[in-house]
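Hi all, posting the design record for the shared folder.

TITLE: backbone redesign
STEP: 1 of 1
STRUCTURE INPUT:
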């Protein structure tokens, strides 16, 4: 057999081996999906994160990675995209190898008004809100420190429901992804400086309203 013929034979064998390996990998992936459920993206910590160190594109690029794992193994609140962490800081040190959860992140301490500045009978209260994507994307120091909380009621009968401002111009103390780790358009966990009356009104609204929305610049 000539040298050229041997080269062609080796090339054909290499292509066959590559196709066989791809088929095995695809079959293995399908087997995993059948056995453990569909795969979903999740953010994992590749390099340990320090408490109160804000995450930006640079920091996240070196410390966070996206992995695809079976849904049944993903803990509640795990982030789906690295961008969800931008502008936020870990509330405590997070070791390498961990999933990154929304509950582990908040606005940096320097960007949260101190408790003594609340004044009156205001106290920090956490509620679940929607419409906070713009505030999260703006990052620390870029958004408003006071917001209006708008309650959108569920429709009743033939009516279309309604919306009203339940708390106007309240201090925004902290903002992070919700407990379900929702992406854009999902729920966020907002810590607000509320009076007792405002807190009771919003806590009640969480149980009956369709959604609570933050409007910046209140």
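Okay, here is what came back for every position:
SEQUENCE:
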């Amino acid at each position: 057999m000539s040298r050229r013929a041997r080269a062609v034979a080796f090339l054909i064998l290499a292509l066959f081996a590559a196709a066989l390996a791809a088929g095995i990998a695809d079959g293995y992936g399908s087997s995993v999906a059948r056995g453990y459920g569909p795969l979903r993206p999740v953010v994992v910590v590749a390099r340990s994160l320090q408490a109160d160190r804000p995450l930006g594109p640079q920091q996240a690029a070196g410390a966070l990675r996206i992995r695809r794992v079976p849904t049944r193994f993903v803990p509640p609140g795990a982030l789906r995209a690295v961008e969800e962490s931008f502008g936020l800081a870990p509330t405590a040190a997070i070791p390498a190898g961990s999933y990154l959860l929304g509950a582990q992140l908040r606005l940096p301490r320097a960007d949260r008004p101190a408790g003594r500045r609340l004044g009156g009978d205001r106290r920090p209260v956490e509620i679940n809100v929607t419409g906070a994507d713009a505030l999260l994307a703006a990052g620390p120091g870029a958004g408003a420190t006071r917001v209006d909380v708008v309650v959108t009621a569920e429709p009743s009968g033939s009516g279309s429901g309604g919306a009203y401002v339940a708390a106007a111009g309240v201090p925004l103390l902290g903002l992070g992804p919700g407990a379900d780790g929702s992406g854009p358009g999902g729920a966020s966990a907002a810590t607000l400086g509320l009076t007792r009356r405002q807190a009771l009104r919003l806590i009640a609204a969480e149980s009956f309203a369709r959604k609570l929305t933050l409007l910046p610049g209140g």
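COMMENT: The mean pLDDT is 76.
Let me know if anyone wants the other runs.
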